[in-house]
Structures are given as C-alpha cells and as structure tokens.
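We include this case.
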Amino acid sequence: MKRLSLPLMSAVGLMGMTALTGCGSGSTDSATSASTAMTPSASSTPSPSSTLSGTVTVLAAASLTESFTALEKSFEAINPGVDVTISFGSSATLAQQIAQGAPADLYASAGTKALDQLPAEAKAKPTTTLAKNVLEIATPPGNPKKVTGLASLADASTNVVLCAETVPCGSAADAVLTKAAVTAHVVSREVDVKATLAKITLGEADAAIVYHSDVVAAGSKVEGVEIPAAQNTTLAYPLVRLTDTAATKAFADLLASAAGLKELEAVGFLAP
C-alpha cells in the first residue's frame, strides 16, 4: 500500500487528469460488495483469491484515516493484484485537487459542503453515504483545565484549537459555538482534524473541537467531553465514485458494505 502526502497530491494533480463525469446526491450503487472484494472484518487474514488488478486512487477526509487504512489492508489481502493508494487530508483541499485535475477514483468527504467544489462532471457520479459523525471536545488526559462543555472554552486561561474555517471540522465547530453563544479562546486553527487533535496529544493546547471518531481513535492519548445533542451537529460522509474500473467498484462496495460500516463504527462513526 502507498501513502501520498497532501503536497505530493497537489503535484500529482498536475501530471494528468482522471476522466471525471459527475456525482449525484441521491442515487447510489449497490452497497453489497462482490465476494472478491469483501471480508467479514479488516482484522481477518483471508487467502488471496481475486483476479482483480490495477490501482485505486482514493482521496479521503483525514478523519477516515484509521477505518480506511484497515479496510485497505483487508481489501489488498484478498486482491493482491490491486494497489489501493489513499491520500488523507482536508475534504475541501482534496476537492480542490480533484477540480484542478488530480487523478482520483474515489473521493470521501467529511460533510457534504466540500462536494460543491468538485467539477460539474464529478457531481453527477454515483454517491453513497458511508456514515455520520458528531463533534466532541478533546482535552489532554486527565482534563487538566476541567473542561465540562462548550462554555468552558470561553475561559481565557484555556487555550483552544480548532480546524481552519474553510474545512468541515472548522466550519462545524464554528456552527456549534455560535449555537451555544460561546466565544472560545482560540489560539490556533489547523489544516485538518488530525493536525488539530495533534495539538492536544502533543500537549500544546488545552482543548480542541474535533470529531467523536477522532477522540475514539486516539484512545488514552486524549480525554473526550461530549457536546450535548441540542448544541451539536451531525455530518454525513459521502463517498463519490469517480471512475468505473472493476477494482474501483469493488473497493467502493467494500467501503459501503456492512463490513465497512463495522470498521467505521469501531472508531466512533455512526450508521448513515
């Protein structure tokens, strides 16, 4: 398996353009994966048996890192002829890369707003909702500032980090703070949710608003403080299939399958 950093994806985007022909918001291809594409769990080690081949290039929201990496490993284990290459980052940045011609077979976004940045031909392509997510406050272990909710983030002694305003986790955080009538003591805004959470795990901030799934995935490295449903917001995670190769369809089917949802739920995502 390969990993491409965000800057590398921008460079790759200049090399050539994948034929993209649109992304519909309502209809989806079947979420039932072919027998050659699915496994009961990404933690299993099935015997290679597939005749699929080629490369599947995926651009995915940073919050999908753990679940998509596990599903990639599972898929490649039974499809040794397929190389799944995933680049994780800000949904907005990835959508911009696609619009600029970066090759991509699948695009998975946090929230639906970033889809507006896709080229017109991409917006008519098959789209399905993989899962949903909500926001949560993350603090260092032990919650040293005793953060109890959004109101605590207004304390001038509490250094708060948010995602950038232009990315889904940032705009969603702004929305919940506005809903709660809270002006947080924000000291920095980061490029995506993983960079935001890193400020907490590295001890460089007292609190951050991230996704619930990121708090779950971080385990003992952070402590989570729930945001009440009345103040919170829910984001859908759409998957857009931009090309029609057999390998692309098979991996998309796995992501949208019961096995795919199981991996997503394991790190805190909600059923779509």
Notes: The longest helix spans residues 65-78. The helical segments are 6-13, 65-78, 91-99, 168-179, 193-201, 212-218, 246-255, 258-266. The beta strands are 2-3, 54-61, 82-89, 106-108, 127-139, 160-163, 186-190, 207-211, 223-226, 234-241. The first strand starts at residue 2 and ends at 3.
